Amino acid sequence: MEAIRIFLTHKSQKSLFRCNQELKRVELLNSSLYERVDHLKIMLDKLKKENKELTKESLVLCELILDNNKANSGALRQNAVNVFDILHYTKEEYAEQISKQNRIVKQLSEEINRINNENESLKTQIFRYLQEGHSPTQQSSASEALKDKASDASSHALAVADKDLEIKETLNISATQKENTNKEQQHGDPFNRKPKQWHASASSQVEIEDVESEEEMEMPKYKGKQIIPHIVDIKSYFDNIDAQMWDILIAIGKDGHSELKCIEEARSVDIKNKTSLNSNIQQLQKMGLIEKDKITMGWRWTYCYNLSNIGKRVFAERFKTDPVKSEKEKLQAEHTSITHGYCIKDAANLLMKMHGFENPVISRENNKITVPDMGIYIPDIKALNPKDGKTDYFEVERGTCSQEDFNKKCEKMRQITNRLYFITPDEKSANIVEKQVARYMLNKGSKLQGVMFFITTMNKLSEGMWGKKLTI
């Protein structure tokens, strides 16, 4: 019995020792946890303070972005629950602000065009008064009446944009130019130019009637400063335009060609080689009758031409008809830029010639598609696939589209087709588009089952090849 008692006493002491050891370990652990909790509290207070500062600074920054009315109204601070609310509110208000400014700019642009047209009309009326041989008193009265009209038009334009001081100055300058023009008509031509009589050249290929009316030339600039406009004889240009140069103007103004090769193919009056063609084009440029742009489509580049404003007036005076819109002007009006327009045109031609697609259409008006609940979708190109006869839709991308807009475009495309084609000018643009497609696919996941993405470049398209094909 004694042995048992001794054994149990020894064992209990051993257990007690272990318990004490475990208790000390737990106390140390508990102490460590308390220290961590205190540390986290300090970090939390610090983060709260930093968040408060961030919210405050974001509020100040967003108030600077928004206009004074929004900032002073306190509406932003009322919505300042946290930094995300501030940014969201600012984003919406800024978008509305930009939209409003765009509308004002559009109104101003329309008003400026209206005033410019009226200015042209006023100058024509003044010139007619001069031609009819009115006395100085009559000329002065007519000029004063016309100046009153110009002043009224200018005042109306200022009322449209009373908040935009810079545009106001532009309109005021326009009104001042009209007044200077009227004064000039009263005191005569400062350059003492006399109208030249013109007779049709024997080498001209188009017969026209002899016209006695005279037109004014565009306002020239010298060292960046606008010269006071004066009346000149448009027909004075005719003496410096030979048959070959008229042929070029006809190719642009009558046939609507813009590319150099098309102008070369369209007309051939004594144009023996490309050197003489280029020389004539350069001369027309120096005279200010045509304008040139260099267009790069990735797989090729070309020069494109259109008639300048003075060139259109010379053409109209010579042939008694207004010139047509050139291909360059049509593409620029329909698309985001001239380059984008010519890339679309080339892509459509390559799809037809190198890949057998039928009836490619690039007209935005003819390509409009209504997507339920998503508005209008306008593909850059639509064409019939030679393999199954179905219509395929193509987007010509240069990598400048934001991810958000790209996603919206893809959403509309996949509502009408499961084949999404993207054509880019070069490999750099193709890499950007490929990344945008990958992000879109990652965002949509299994919803894109069965949807195929095709990405290629103009070079590969011209070689009869397609680039990459991406699927889920």
**Poorly predicted runs:** 163-230
Give the number of helices. 15
User: Helix- and strand-based class?
Assistant: alpha+beta
Beta-strand portion reads 5-15%
According to DSSP, the number of beta strands is: 12
Quick structural summary:
The protein is an alpha+beta fold. The chain has 15 helices and twelve strands.
Detailed description of the structure:
The chain has helices at 2-65, 68-72, 75-78, 83-131, 136-160, 165-187, 243-253, 260-266, 274-286, 309-319, 327-334, 338-355, 403-414, 427-444, 458-462; strands spanning 221-222, 225-226, 290-296, 301-307, 358-361, 369-371, 375-377, 381-384, 391-396, 419-424, 452-457, 468-471. By secondary structure, it is of the alpha+beta class. Strand 9, helix 13 (403-414) and strand 10 form a beta-alpha-beta unit. Residues 163-230 have low confidence and may be disordered.
Keywords:
two-stranded antiparallel ribbon; six-stranded mixed beta sheet; 12 strands; 11% strand; 58% helix; alpha+beta; 472 residues; 4 domains; Arc Repressor Mutant, subunit A
